[in-house]
Design brief:
By secondary structure, the chain is α/β, with parallel strands linked by helices. The chain is built from 8 helices and 17 strands. A 7-stranded mixed sheet has the order 2-3-1-4-5-7-6, sandwiched between helices. The chain is elongated and about 70 Å long. The two termini are 37 Å apart. The structure holds guanosine-5'-triphosphate, magnesium ion and sodium ion. Residues 19-20, 42-44 line the site of sodium ion.
Length: 343
């Protein structure tokens, strides 16, 4: 049976990969933002979340004549740090997602945290797309701003094309050594069995339309199976943050269900369960990063999937990485408190 739009939630896509492969820069390229240059040492140290309305994604994939029938409201993208010391954040991020983008630097191939990320994805059976990033660094690359990758490839000299082929086949071999079949997406006839590789540049935008299109196609294929909206709340605390004017806030990812202003919530605290009420439900504007301070939109209620900033009293001791619960009309608050502390 045909699912109506309200039955589907936005897919969650996590970006994983070794440090400095260009995860944040790829998102900057899609968002038209400059988050990466604002990071201390150019290193991501927190999980991020950005909501992309489907109309923006459709716009960016226009050149590829994407099927516009897609019924999910948008895409929630989770950025993670690649630095070796943030294994817990990569694990947390990958635990929330429906699909992942594994970013590999075409000049470096598979690196230690690429392999760590592969193992996380394998252990959760998460499908992923490889963004083979920094193609603009191939010697002699001719910029074709925001072009589909095959359009850009046609503009390159024989030398660039040969270096590209050589590096791609080396990287496919490296994936094979990890027990994974990969292939350039436009040659990949067995999506699912073989993971697709999309060559990209986060600096000049080549391959970005292709990357977004693959995400859209994946969502279409798995919508009913994976993206059916449930009322049952699934919500994880990403960060606990003091924001000037708002006090202590929590950044959460709402994976499924609905949150309302005023809801009584329970989160795990360092000294025991915290019971409080949602004072404000805030999101950044679409295409803006939740972890970057900016102006927020206020909401009376929010439906999954979303990255949300919650303000409430008594959040100082909240523990990042744990689940958030809502006390429903039929729930006993003591039971919910007990559940919250089991995380
Ligand atoms: P962490 O979050 O710290 O793991 O790094 P990251 O994977 O998010 O990489 P980031 O976006 O911080 O980019 C690292 C560096 O690579 C920056 O100096 C970027 O400007 C550069 N960079 C990223 N993507 C590209 C690309 O496609 N081409 C070129 N030439 N440089 C890139
Ligand atoms: Mg980053
Ligand atoms: Na970086």
């Amino acid at each position: 049976s045909q699912k109506s739009e309200s039955d589907l939630r936005s897919p969650i896509c996590c970006i994983l990969g070794h440090v400095d492969t260009g995860k944040t820069k790829l998102l900057d390229c899609i968002r038209g933002t400059n988050v990466q240059e604002g990071e201390a040492g150019g290193i991501t140290q927190q999980i991020g979340a950005t909501y992309f309305p489907m109309e923006n994604i459709r716009e960016r994939t226009k050149q590829l004549k994407a099927d516009a029938k897609l019924k999910v409201p948008g895409l929630l993208v989770i950025d993670t740090p690649g630095h070796e010391s943030f294994t817990n954040l990569r694990s947390r991020g990958s635990g929330l997602c429906d699909i992942a983008i594994l970013v590999v630097d075409i000049m470096h191939g598979l690196e230690p945290q690429t392999k760590e990320s592969i193992n996380l994805l394998k252990s959760r059976n998460t499908e992923f797309i490889v963004a083979l990033n920094k193609v603009d660094r191939l010697y002699g690359w001719k910029t074709c701003r925001n072009a589909p990758i095959l359009t850009a490839m046609k503009e390159q000299s024989k030398d660039v094309q040969n270096e590209f082929k050589m590096r791609v086949s080396k990287i496919i071999t490296e994936f094979m050594e990890q027990g994974l079949n990969t292939e350039l997406y436009y040659k990949n006839k067995e999506m699912g069995e073989t993971s697709s590789i999309v060559p990209t540049s986060a600096i000049s935008g080549e391959g970005i339309p292709d990357l977004l299109l693959l995400l859209v196609q994946w969502a279409q294929r798995t919508m009913v199976e994976k993206l059916t909206f449930h009322k049952e709340l699934q919500c994880t605390v990403l960060e606990v943050k003091v924001i000037e004017g708002l006090g202590t806030t929590i950044d959460v990812v709402l994976v499924n269900g609905v949150l309302h202003e005023g809801d009584q919530i329970v989160v795990c605290g360092m000294q025991g369960p915290i019971v409080t009420n949602i004072r404000a439900l805030l999101t950044p504007h679409p295409m803006k990063e939740l972890r970057v301070k900016g102006s927020y939109q206020h909401h009376k209620e929010l439906k999954a999937a979303q990255g949300i900033k919650i303000t409430a009293q008594g959040l100082e001791q909240a523990v990042a990485g744990t689940a958030l619960y809502v006390v429903g009309p039929d729930d006993d608050v003591e039971d919910v408190k007990e559940t919250a502390m089991q995380d």
